[in-house]
Amino acid sequence: MQLVFATNNLNKLKEVQSMLPEHIKLLSLKDIACKEDIPETQPTIEGNAIQKAEYLKEHYGYDCFADDTGLEVAALNGEPGVFSARYAGPQRNANDNTNKLLTELKNKPNRNAQFKTVIALHLNGKLHSFSGICKGKITTERHGEGGFGYDPVFKADGYYKTFAEISLEEKNKIGHRGKAVAQLIDFLKQ
After folding, report:
1. What is the reported pTM?
2. Which of 37, 141, 152, 189 would bridge with 164, disulfide CB 3.0–4.6 Å?
3. Could you give the domains of the chain?
4. pLDDT below 50 — which residues of the chain?
């Protein structure tokens, strides 16, 4: 079985491939010569994941899956949410996004937040979705060198280290993307 994963991130591709049964081969966007930016114009994380999967199926014909992730912060009424990657502007700069988040939360006592990932799978003419949530808190400053995005300022509930301070294996066990991928894998094994 072959599936296209709507990503050009080779590390993410390898990570997910390593979790899948051996008979499932993942292809990246590069593998299918998809060079255009896939639209992400929906108002929800779920909507964007579905939009990307449907775009790939419609324009390239492959069975595929796409993911979208957002950070939802309670004191900011769920922001940055669907705009997490472009929170500080269209340049999609993680450092700028994190700086804006910390500025917006300055002097706010409620630091509760959650990461949410939704995976949309287009398989055999049917659409399926899987989601993972990791609840936690936003720190007042960055900690750690690992991870990416908002990882240096996010501590999962029950943990004393940020996502940027724990191993990738640990993050995958407790994190939003790992939970959504685990559901996808369980579904594909059936």
Report:
1. 0.91
2. 152
3. 2-189 (3.90.950.10)
4. none
